[in-house]
Amino acid sequence: MRKACVAGNWKMHKTVTEAETLVQELLPGLEGISAVDNVICPPFTALDRIAGMVRGSKIELGAQNVFWEEQGAYTGEISPPMLAELVKHVIIGHSERRAYFQESDQTVNKKVQAALTAGLRPILCVGETLEEYEAGKTGQVVRRQLLAALDGVSEEGISTMMIAYEPVWAIGTGKAATPEGANRVIRDYIRDELAGLFSRKVADRIRILYGGSVKPVNAREFFEQPDIDGALVGGASLKADDFIQITQAAI
Ligand code: PEP
């Protein structure tokens, strides 16, 4: 049995003060839901403060990005050891980073490896663009992103990770994938690939999330799918009520 996980990607939203308010609202609503894990990923600036607030609670903390070098002259970047003091998880390869910050399959792989070395747990995002979807290339793209990102990753490493299937055309658009369609991609191009790469036993243990316009109204349909183990939530993770309701739907 894989325990469901609902993770929130706050993206570039919330000042430190606003982040504190949101966490104050989330804590009482999530605390009783022990059947589901929760991860929140605020911006870097709020991590230190929020780490103090969630310590001892069920909320786990994640970052939204990381650089691959440990230290050095890389103005503006944040290294894995810097994050490891504050967070347990880190989102790597989000489509917005691939689209706006030139992240490639190769840099995503470097980030995954560096994060694992520092003891962080990557939440690896993969997913096709609208153009690729319409060209029938979903499987090819998802498989390519997955295999490239996991190049050189050990069984021990993958066992600490989560994968998020996030079709780019569904992110922030209000047009979610169909639950059956998302499940098919996750099963055929992620879980079965993991089985080939590692073993069926390992593949069956890895949590694979769906992301893309998950809201309280549609969350349950995704969680009912056999290969979908939770959600990576963007917009709806910024409203405490919505994030709590999505978590309740995962019970
Ligand atoms: C995301 O940014 O990972 C995401 C899934 O966004 P949204 O839920 O807003 O579509």
Give an overview in words:
There is one protein chain. With 251 residues, this protein is of the alpha/beta class. The protein has one domain: Aldolase class I (TIM Barrel, Alpha-Beta Barrel), CATH 3.20.20.70. Helices cover 45% and strands 16% of the residues. The chain is built from twelve helices and eight strands. It has helices at residues 16-31, 44-54, 80-84, 95-100, 105-117, 130-134, 138-149, 155-158, 179-197, 200-205, 219-223, 240-249, and strands at residues 4-9, 36-41, 59-63, 89-92, 121-126, 162-165, 207-211, 230-233. It has an eight-stranded parallel beta barrel with strand order 1-2-3-4-5-6-7-8, surrounded by six helices. Strand 2 (36-41), helix 2 and strand 3 form a beta-alpha-beta unit. Helix 5 (105-117) crosses helix 7. The longest helix has 19 residues, at 179-197. It is globular and about 45 Å long. The protein starts with a strand and ends with a helix. The relative contact order is 0.16. The model has no long low-confidence stretch (mean pLDDT 98). The protein binds phosphoenolpyruvate. The site of phosphoenolpyruvate has 13 residues, from strand 8.
Q: Give the N-terminus to C-terminus distance in angstroms.
A: 13 Å
* Total helical elements: 12
Give the low-pLDDT segments. none
What is the approximate shape? globular
The percentage of residues in β strands lies in: 15-25%
Element string (H = helix, E = strand): EHEHEHEHHEHHHEHHEHEH
What strand order characterises the main sheet? 1-2-3-4-5-6-7-8
Tally of individual domains: 1
CATH architecture name: Alpha-Beta Barrel
Mean pLDDT: 98
What's the total count of β strands? 8
Small molecules (ligands, ions, cofactors) in the structure: phosphoenolpyruvate
The whole-angstrom Rg is 17 Å
Helix amount, in percent?
40-55%
CATH superfamily: Aldolase class I
Derived structural class: alpha/beta
**Major beta sheet, specifics?**
8 strands, parallel, barrel
What is CATH's topology name?
A: TIM Barrel
CATH class: Alpha Beta
